[in-house]
């Protein structure tokens, strides 16, 4: 990371191509949707549910994140949750703290909106990001969502 550190940018016509150009490592492609898929999902959700952002360091796009904010978790109005929906850190930028920055940024946005917990789901197995999320303090809830492990981070 540069001395100024990373920042988030809202996805706009100005940086759309940069966001679409984010490519993760080939061995990770089974575990997270590409940015274009995420942006399409954001587009079809009710306004305010999806929170897509480009992660930029200096003038370099280094990743993409998308949070979900107050989503109807079961689709029946009984449980609403917020958390990290997608995280794509560019292949050549991994291991530099951008993933941690992304999670901390989503947690800060949820706190700003009055939330007490940050949820995330991940592809289970030895090639998934479980160690990364557990290392940041997420706890496994015991739930599954779409075949993925659900974790929660208490926001104090």
Features:
156 residues; globular; alpha+beta; 7-stranded mixed β-sheet; 7 strands
What report would you give on this structure?
This protein has 156 residues and is of the alpha+beta class. The protein is built from four helices and seven strands. The chain has a seven-stranded mixed beta sheet with strand order 1-2-3-4-5-7-6, sandwiched between helices. The two termini are 27 Å apart. The mean pLDDT is 94.
Q: Structural class of the helix and strand makeup?
A: alpha+beta
Biggest sheet record: 7 strands, mixed
Strand element count: 7
Q: Strands across the major sheet, in which order?
A: 1-2-3-4-5-7-6
Following the backbone from N to C, one meets helices and strands in this order, namely EHHEEEHEHEE
- Outline, from the CA principal axes? globular
Report low-confidence residues grouped into runs of 5 or more: none
- Rg computed from alpha carbons, rounded to a whole number of angstroms: 15 Å
Residue share in β-strands: 35-45%
Which whole number gives the mean pLDDT?
A: 94
How far apart, in Å, are the first and last alpha carbons? 27 Å
Helix content: 10-25%
Total number of helices: 4
Short recap of the structure:
The protein is of the alpha+beta class and 156 residues long. It has helices spanning 16-20, 35-44, 98-112, 130-135; strands at residues 6-10, 50-57, 60-72, 80-89, 117-122, 139-145, 148-154.
SSE layout and pairings?
Layout: E1 6-10, H1 16-20, H2 35-44, E2 50-57, E3 60-72, E4 80-89, H3 98-112, E5 117-122, H4 130-135, E6 139-145, E7 148-154
Parallel strand pairs: 4-5
Antiparallel strand pairs: 1-2, 2-3, 3-4, 5-7, 6-7
């Amino acid at each position: 990371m540069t001395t100024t550190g990373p920042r988030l940018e809202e996805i706009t016509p100005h940086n759309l191509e940069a966001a679409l150009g984010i490519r993760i490592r080939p061995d990770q492609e089974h575990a997270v949707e590409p940015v274009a898929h995420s942006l399409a999902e954001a587009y079809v959700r009710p306004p305010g549910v999806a929170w897509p952002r480009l992660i930029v360091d200096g003038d370099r796009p280094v990743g993409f994140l998308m949070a979900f904010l107050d989503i109807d978790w079961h689709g029946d109005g009984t449980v609403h949750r917020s958390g990290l929906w997608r995280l794509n850190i560019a292949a050549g930028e991994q291991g530099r703290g951008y993933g941690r920055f992304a999670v901390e940024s989503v947690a800060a946005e949820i706190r700003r909106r009055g939330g007490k917990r940050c949820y995330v789901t991940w592809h289970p197995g030895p090639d998934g990001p479980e160690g990364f999320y557990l290392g940041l303090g997420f706890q496994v809830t015991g739930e599954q969502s779409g075949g993925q492990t659900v974790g929660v981070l208490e926001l104090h």
